[in-house]
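Hi all, long-time lurker, first post. I run a small reading group and we've been trying to get comfortable going from sequence to structure in the token notation. Rather than ask abstract questions, I figured I'd post a concrete chain and ask someone more experienced to write out its structure so we can walk through it together at our next meeting. Sequence below, copied exactly:
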Amino acid sequence: MQLAEFFSVHCMDRTADSEKSRGSGVCVMVNNSWCNNANVVTLTRSCLPNLELLALKLCPFYLPQEFTSVIVNTMYIPPQANMDSALCELHEALTQFQAQHREAALIVVGDFNSAKLKRVVPNLYQQDALQDALDDADWDMFRHSTDDVSEFTEAVVGFIGKRVDDTIPRATIKKFPNQKPWVDKTICKALNSRTAAYNAGIISGNISGSTSPRHTECAGR
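-- Answer (accepted) --
Happy to help. Here is the structure in token form:
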């Protein structure tokens, strides 16, 4: 397995500013079939004693119409960190990203240890089940299974993917060829209301109510 064939790798090595003597930093691997390296932009690299943060802006080949990009924040909060300071630093960074990229989907991943993100970002949903599943994993099993880094990477990535499939809920989004880019859920709701009003009008003989969504459609353009 050649990693570069399937993923672009984005690393932030640990620096002296982190005040740590062990470890190597954080890393993100982006699947090239979802988003190639040309569409990945680094927003910030922060390596501090309480928080290590690597933020990337991704523009994948396909996204739901509500989003123009995805901001992936990969972070590490050490167990001995001042959790209040770490969460304060994280909140400042996330607030800045949300203000600058209002139509981006925001994802925060990493090792939070005992930090609770809902204290500073209540509108984020924290997947504690996934974190618990990864905490309980026997990582030494992978280290002892092979000395080949490619086999090791393939095994670990596959294991994490299985845990994600088992713990993270998924949603199916339907996209139709004739659906215009500016047709959002508000316009879809209005069009459905018009269709219902028109069908009801056929029965009652009054179809005047079926014209109202035209104003909604124009406002959405």
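A couple of things your group might point at:
Residues 215-221 have pLDDT under 50 and may be disordered.
The two ends are 46 Å apart (CA to CA).
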